[in-house]
Amino acid sequence: MAVSQKQRIDKWLWFARVVKTRTLAGKLVLSGNVRIDGIRITSTSHHIKPGDTLTIAVHEQIKILTVVANGQRRGPAAEAQLLYNDLSPPPPTKEDLKLNRTPAQREQGAGRPTKKQRRQMVAFAHRDPDQD
Fold first, then answer.
1. 38-49 tens-digit pLDDT
2. Cβ atoms within 10 A of the Cβ of 18, count?
3. 83 three-class SS
4. CA of 108: how far to CAs of 101, 113, 114, in Å?
5. Which domains does the chain have, with CATH numbers?
6. pLDDT tens column, 98-131
7. β-pairing, 53-58 with 61-67?
8. Has this prediction a pTM greater than 0.90?
């Protein structure tokens, strides 16, 4: 029996342990979160082959994987990692997240007026324009 060079994308994602179940793999593909060589795939029956580059938006991060081999079974994680080369950028560290955090304070004049500003607006609205 000859081994096929192509494999369904949903099976490969499951074999490579990108997602926990084949159903979740199908939902990931159908939602448009998978690209093969830059082309968005929305069909779970789309076939991939070794050499294809997958861009996957999963678990609030972007994974870039190059397919090395087709999966034969869903084995342990060490076996699954042999199916691809991970080209993903490293996730941001906690220190990077702290540096990029924006302050909770608003800019001056943004948002709702303060009590003092409301009093000034009421006084302005009720003033007599002829007395200026």
1. 999 999 999 999
2. 21
3. helix
4. 19, 10, 11
5. 7-131 (3.10.290.10)
6. 777 666 666 666 788 889 999 999 999 988 777 7
7. antiparallel
8. no
